[in-house]
Amino acid sequence: MKPELTLHQRTLTLKRFPVRKNETLQAWDAADEYLINHCQEMELDPERPILIMNDSFGALGCWFANQAPVTSVTDSFIAKQACQENLERNQLPPISIIDCLAKLPQNPQLVLLKQPKNNRLLSWQLQQLCHLLPADCMVIAAGKVKEIHTSTLKLFEKFLGETKTSLAVKKARLIFCKANPSLAKPLPRPTQWDVPEHKLTITNHANVFSSDSLDIGGRLLLDFIPQDKKYQDIIDLGCGNGVIGIKAAQLNPQAKVTCVDESFMAAASCRENANINLENPEQLTVVNANCLDNFEPDSADLVLCNPPFHQQNTVTDHIAWQMFCDAQRTLRKGGEMIVIGNRQLGYHEKLKRVFNNVKLIGQNNKFVVLQSTK
Description:
Shape: elongated
Largest sheet: 7 strands, mixed
Strand content: 25-35%
Strand order of the largest sheet: 5-4-3-6-7-9-8
Order of helices and strands: EEHEHEHEEHEHEEEEHEHEHEEEEHEHEE
Structural class: alpha/beta
Number of strands: 20
Helix content: 25-40%
Radius of gyration: 22 Å
Number of helices: 10
């Protein structure tokens, strides 16, 4: 699919990632259009950087790529890949794409921020900006009207400065703010808590799921991680903070464990947690990837997975499908996939279609733990 974005006589051909058969989701939204249209009349300095935050598939990065130096900040490996490929598809100059924990460029002239789903990430980014921005730099944030609440505006007021909003257009709204240096405070440390029943200490950066406790699905899955010398290569797919992969490494010290996530903050959390909890931290490797793209076929004995059922703000099952199909390809014959999910998500049927077998190995009132064998 090659959707086109036409704004003020410029056409960009933008692709949403990952691409699926009969994909119908477009690679931009009304908030992207509102931001671009608002900035049309601005006179931009071709020497000073524009800072773009949380650009989902590169619509903003592509639009501004040839107007000024652009740095795009994202916590998503998929968003980074999408932006890079969309720049190439449109024959635009490359831009700098960095993760949320990287140092931001100095003296930006403009900040364009797409409203993230996670308010912890928003608060982190606003505090970063308050330390950085010069007095003449405007921050323009954009999001869906239904996602910009009074509490959202209070975060801008608390961590960045005086805040105003626009009228709604196509169910999107803009937020305008300039940094007030008197509000600058040291950046918050990642949250940390203990899981005493498993003798684990867990650290979470701002955009990692379940910020200050172990999520109930992960807690149940911990009880069904197998221990057997036959496992030499174990994958924690969609690892988050890495608690599942770390427990698998403890139970199977002979195994090489690879934790995979598309979030850069998740990967950083996982690496820190491996260093804290494992006697041999080098037993565990952390990889940012789109599911198991580029993993060798027949290279793993066990895949553990707690699939997400949304991509940014879109509820979808395509991520779970890709995870199951990628796991089936990556497992050796006789290898196992163990999945946890909400009962209503229908993972039992999906796994049976991919592996031709599935069995229930654990459950509670909300979740089921399923196992399939290649």
